[in-house]
Amino acid sequence: MNNSIMKKEIIKKGAEAVLYMGHWFGHDVIFKHRIPKKYRIEELDQQIRSQRTINEARALIKIKKYGINVPQVYEIDYSNAIIIMGYVKGEKLKDIMNDLSNFQKKWIFRKLGEFISKLHQNGQIHGDITTSNIILNKKEKIYLIDFGLHEYSDSIEDKSVDLHLFKRVLIASHGDDYKFCFKMFLEGYKNAYVKEKRSLSKSIIKNIKIIETRGRYIEKHDRL
Fold it and tell me: Which of 35, 167, 185, 191 has the highest local Cβ count within 10 Å?
């Protein structure tokens, strides 16, 4: 790695990947390295990690074209399963929720709903919408990060699950704000759908309750 491309300290270690801060030709960047899995056959492991790396990078490049704020992809190291992407300076939404006014929460969650709506209308599922994966910068721009669980799907069920999982995150991590924030999120989500697809957004939202009912039945069954 030449002097213009430099890894520095580890900022996050996950089950699938390690994130490093670093520099890339004068830019502050994140190196996302999908780590080898010893339990997999080496050749298969290389293939899986490389494919997931290129899939995520392609998704980020495509999603940026929809007008959604995501990290800029600078380079893909296919053979080593590394994405070099722009470092988004700001605060995780999870860490600043208690400091935000209701007015700020209103526009943040409406904007977030709009972003997820654009994703879904283009057949893309984030897969891990959490307040830890939303960055608010000093200019009050919202960024979506961590598309490691991203997938392509036009299924109502998959889109409903994406929203349902976010609802569960809000309940678990931000119980006091959950109702207001999720309501604003759904408003932004519905309103961002093009007019001729507005009924589809209602079907996706309605299906959340069906998923929740199914979940409660399974939990009750497990207790028997």
Answer: 185
The pLDDT tens digits of the residues spanning 74-83 come to 999 999 999 9
Tokens of residue 53, six digits: 């790396």
Give the predicted TM-score (pTM) of the model. 0.89
Q: Which CATH class is domain 5-86?
A: alpha beta
Phi-psi region of 83 (alpha: psi -120 to 50; beta: other; left: phi over 0): beta
In whole angstroms, give the CA distance from residue 42 to residue 46.
Answer: 6
CATH class of 91-223: mainly alpha
By annotation, the residues acting in catalysis are 128
Alpha carbon distances (Å) from 57 to 51, 54, 144, 152, 218: 10, 5, 14, 14, 36
DSSP E strands in 3-118: the ranges are 5-13, 17-24, 27-34, 73-77, 82-86, 91-92
What's the pLDDT band for 224 if we cut at 50, 70, 90? very low
Rg (CA), the chain: 19
pLDDT in tens, 126-184: 999 999 999 999 888 999 999 999 999 999 999 999 999 999 999 999 988 999 999 99
Domains in the chain: boundaries: 5-86, 91-223
Residue 113 burial class via C-beta count within 10 angstroms: exposed 0-12, middle 13-18, buried 19 and up: buried
